[in-house]
Amino acid sequence: MMPTIEISKKDFFNLIGKKLSNKELEEDLMLVKGELESVEGDVLKIEIADTNRPDLWSTEGIAREIRTKYKKSKGISFEKLKSSGLTVKVNKNLQKIRPMTVCAVIRNLKATPEVLSQLIQLQEKVCETFGNKRREAAIGVYDLHKIKGPIDYKAFKPNDIKFIPLEFTKKLNLNQILRMHPKGKEYAHLLEGCTKYPIFIDSAGEVLSMPPVINSDYTGKVTEKTRDVFIECSGFSLKYLMPALNIIVTALVDRGGQLETVEVVYSNKKIITPNLKLKKIKVDWKYIEKRMGLSIGKKKIVELLKQANYSIKDKGNVLELEYSSIRQDIMHPVDVVEDVTIRYGYNNIEPRSPELITEQKMNKINSFSKEIANILVGANSQEILSYTLINKNNLIKKMNLKKMKVIEVDNPVSKNWSVFRTGITPCLMEFLSKNTNKEYPQQIFEIGEVVLFDKNAETRTKNPTRVAWAKAGKTSDFTEAKQVLDFLMRTLGLDYSIEETKHDSFIKGRVGRVFVKNKAVAYIGEINPEVLSNFGIDMPVCTFELNLTNILNEV
Amino acid sequence: MDINNLLAKLHSFERKALPNITKEIILSELAKKSSLKEIEATRAIQWLYNKKLVEIKSETKELISLDVNGKKYVNEGLPERRFLQAASRESNINEIQKLANLETDEVNICIGSLKKKAAIDVEKDGGLKIKLTDQGGKLLEKEFLEEQFLKKDFPITASELSSEEKFSFDNLIKRKKILKKETKKIKKVTITKLGKEVLKKGVSENDYIDRLTHEMLKKGSWKGKQFRSYDVSINVPKIFAGKRQPYSEFIEKVREKVVSMGFVEMNGPIIELELYNFDALYQPQNHPARTWSATYKIKEPKTGSLPEKKILQAIKSAHENGGSTGSTGWKYEWSEKIASQLVPRAHDTAISPRFLAKRVKIPGKYFSLVRCYRPDVIDSTHAVEFNQLGGFVVGKDLSFRDLLGLLKDFTIEMTGAKEVKFFPDYFPFTEPSVQISAKHPEFGWMELAGAGVFRPEMTEPLGIKEPVIAWGFGIDRLAMLKLGIEDIRDLFSQKLDFLRFCKKVL
Lengths: 555, 506
What we know:
The structure holds two protein chains of two kinds.
Chain A: E1 4-8, H1 9-16, H2 22-29, E2 34-40, E3 43-48, H3 59-70, E4 82-90, E5 100-107, H4 113-130, E6 137-143, E7 151-156, E8 162-163, E9 172-173, H5 174-180, H6 182-187, E10 197-201, E11 207-210, E12 214-215, E13 229-235, H7 238-254, E14 258-265, E15 270-273, E16 279-284, H8 285-292, H9 297-307, E17 311-315, E18 318-323, H10 333-344, H11 364-378, E19 382-383, E20 389-390, H12 392-395, E21 419-420, H13 425-433, E22 442-449, E23 452-453, E24 461-462, E25 465-472, H14 478-492, E26 497-500, E27 506-516, E28 519-527, H15 529-534, E29 541-547, H16 548-552
Parallel strand pairs in A: 4-7, 4-14, 19-22
Antiparallel strand pairs in A: 1-3, 2-3, 5-13, 5-14, 6-13, 7-10, 8-9, 10-11, 11-12, 14-15, 16-18, 17-18, 20-21, 22-25, 23-24, 25-29, 26-27, 27-28, 28-29
Chain B: H1 3-9, H2 12-17, E1 25-26, H3 27-33, H4 38-50, E2 54-66, H5 68-76, H6 79-87, H7 93-100, H8 104-116, E3 120-125, E4 127-132, H9 134-141, H10 145-150, E5 156-157, H11 163-173, E6 179-191, H12 193-201, E7 208-209, H13 214-219, E8 226-227, H14 246-260, E9 264-265, E10 271-273, H15 274-277, H16 309-321, H17 336-339, E11 342-344, H18 351-358, E12 364-373, E13 385-394, H19 400-415, E14 420-424, E15 430-440, E16 444-454, H20 456-459, E17 468-473, H21 475-483, H22 496-501
Parallel strand pairs in B: 7-8, 9-12
Antiparallel strand pairs in B: 1-6, 2-5, 2-6, 3-4, 10-11, 12-13, 13-17, 14-15, 15-16, 16-17
């Protein structure tokens, strides 16, 4: 799902150092694949199409990309960070629970309401979308002055520890929190099956939080009075945790906060976090031109790369690029190509129609289907169209059939669309049943695919195309169905024969199997009155259903 | 209009009816007198009215007519009459019931009704004993008011009842299915001055030929006779002949259009391997779109068979570390088992890797227009089953600029739009990615298609070194616009009348 970000216009203009009209804003939002959803007073709602760029999901992130259009980028560099002196000790007993964390400290934060609301929003979007609903990454922010280091990250039995969760007034044990706190209820499933739960606790015995669920009310509440914060991000893999933490701290640094590192001590290693070391990629500038399809020259490319917050070392054809570690989406030079192309402006490119000599061919079964439709229209029939997903009851029970192997959806939205049709006649019956108050005769047909089991197929299924025809009316009988089938076969130049057969959807003795060159290709007959009554139809119905895939090669 | 001319236009129904409208007459009576069916008489007076030969007044009237039991009692007599007669011979209630051949509920009604008329006395003496009063004796010889009432010539008009009749009516209407009262529209017809003049000329039937027959032609008996003139502007009953389903026809036209632009149509299975639906499109296995909510899963069978190892190995490397594509990959452990799972095709792009891996000619243009399935909220713009149109062009020197050209051509061809605009977009399998919008004269800018250059991590494992530009159109939305349909579910309309009456989209 695409994240929608709410930002303050005033705050945003402050960050980019310029006021924009709504039209300019819409234009500039293309730089972040953003679309202005709504403007209400000072509040802008922006939908960001890129689900792989969590670094863009805040005012700071959006401003970071747009600012460089108006203010020359200073380029990006990596400065060695100061240590906060704080240590987090990660206990081995978290191994199968939530074993990893990375942390940081930000000092001298000017926590204005805008800064706080953006921090909360970014934290939420990163955890929900990038962190897969807090499973892969959950972030906590705390008032540093209420914490006495070192901090332990350790698993506790639910009854061994109590704390006051955020916005509550009473101490609760861990099971109580999961049961009673709204966030507890929402995220309890992430700790399902654990006998111990993860806890951040300081050296004074004050609980910071139970990740990925809830902070404590005392340390985990950040207000406008908060100056210095401790930030942790917990989960299972540094692949998610590092970018998540970096995105949060980069946004706070953009707000003027000073970043300091934390020492995270594991049983077998020690790491210093965050690590904002720049990432590198090499790109041939001619490759960029080639993929874009434009000769804009190296100088222009370098200029656009700078706007896109890259630092560039010019090595002739190859450009060595350095970029912020929060850009975790860059995997291949094509990602750089896109950044340059977006900066150049999609709408500044003159579209060029590719001129290739190629063959033209419609799928055989589709052009055949069209011919069939036109023949049946000539036979006075109304074409209809149904979904291939239908109600299992219509397919089997109402058709007076017993057991049938069908492809059934495991997670249907409604039972009306829960199995794939194995035939089209049930769709015609359903259609007739919805139109019993309309003028008769009703002569209808449908052409489409069905889904059948085929254990030898790669996908264990096959999808022959069929045509089903039906007539409901006072005179409907076997003869009328056969007349239309005969007209169709005659027009196609196909010889056929019909043998009596058994089929519970039809009246006994009035149902036939149709053969073309010894291949069974169709059923034809008068619908069993029991079936008609199941569908609430009080007119006789005659019908046939013909496998078009089977006769395609005979025509 | 000339009187003779008018005469020539009269239909045989009109000829039969007009002579009977010398004074005001109600329709049902006119039908009887003219030996026409009521529907024929209705038509006749409508046509006569159109020719200004009669006036029609419509009144609503409450009409009283006999119901099932009422008709029965007219023949058999009222139950209380039979009861009274039996009671003159027997006093035991059971004997009376037997003798008069009455149902138990009828007995109660009889007792109530006859007591009201002071015709009987009821005594409780073991069982019920009935004794005729003097009045009862007299009534044996005299008709009840209700009986007189039932003899009337139904239907009768409620407002015209005398007070005695009203009394009988009130008694009888309470009882089971004797009478029914219905509000009916009554048409009263009177003749106009012009009508009288026409009548004076004589409207006898034999002078005009109404329908030319095979017999007349064979015998030549039509010669020297006049044909009745028709009112050629008259409405005729509608017929419902053979017709295409509008959305089905639209899809067919789109197919033909795309083919005419030099494309080859592809097709693929409805139930698809996750490998083609996701993995071959460089969507990591932990991508949110692969979780339960956005894709259908099926109950049985859970897995299918995967293609040759070489392609699998290449896809695996692309996901894990980029393989030989020059990419870092998604950096996770790729699972063959997940790739072998079966899902209903969630987007048309699932077909592209199948063709890229095997059957594609370079340069080449390929497309598909197929049903796709996604569990979604169902409302006027979302359906769980929908059509997607998509495809790709592969060629040695293709670039993003060519993609924009292709998109623009397509959009203009499909929508007739004059102005288009591009927006940066995101798809896991294309880079750069773009969305095209077109300006609709009524609805403004409309999002029409998503597109992009396939990522090398997607194409190279399938053995394609050349650039591939790919696009996908939301065909349902376009169809709704063209067909003037506001609810996406109506594309698959289950309303016969909609299909019968909708106009063809050219």
